[in-house]
Each structure stands twice: as C-alpha cells, then as structure tokens.
What we know:
The chain has one helix and ten strands, in the order βββαβββββββ. By secondary structure, it is mainly beta.
Amino acid sequence: MAEPVRTGGCLCGGVTYRVAEPLSSVSACHCSQCRRQSGHVWASAQAPLAAVEISGPVRWYAASEGARRGFCPDCGSFLFWRALDEETISVSLGSLDGATGLRLEKHIFCGGKGDYYEIADGVPQEP
C-alpha cells in the first residue's frame, strides 16, 4: 500500500507544502543553530527534494556555506532545512498536518545540546 501524500505548513498558513514520497531519517537535532532558530530542539524528516512541492513565500536563510533554512517570512515558522550538496530536504515534524505515524530514529549533534535538559528516551544519539 502506498504512503499517502503528506501536507504541512506554517502557523499563519501562508506557506504550505506537499510531500509525495515517504519521509525518512526522522531525527531530533540538538545543534546550536537549530536550538536558536526553533527555541529548543528541531525534529524533522527527510524527503527527496523532487517530491516536495512548496507553496507560498518561503524565505531561505544561508545558515552556513553548505545549508539553507526555510521559514515563513510572516509568522517565522522554521519549516525546512536543506544541505546544498544533497537532493533531499528536511521538513519540520511539527509542521505536518495531522498524525504522522512516524517515530524518532535518532538524536543528532548531541554534543551541542543545551545543558538544561537530558536525552533519556533510549533513542540512539549521535555526537
């Protein structure tokens, strides 16, 4: 049975997206950039770039030479992360419509996590 098309969007509804292929690599990022932009930890999943259709005025921020972060210029919702040398895009799990049926597979950049919390869910952690 084929996975249904997933949809999502920002808080104000100005930016929406559709993902036509299965999401993978479900992770929680603890790096300092994700913590600053999201306010804590950023949870996301990847899809092939060609399978994601974005509508609305996404603003892209070059957080580093190799990656961009996409957000809504009106409400500020942090929706996308993309490595420029890859043909995938990560979408925010919190921005997906409805139940996801997904489960966290890994924690990444744990060396950059805040000192105000512990990661104690038993999910694998990458430094």
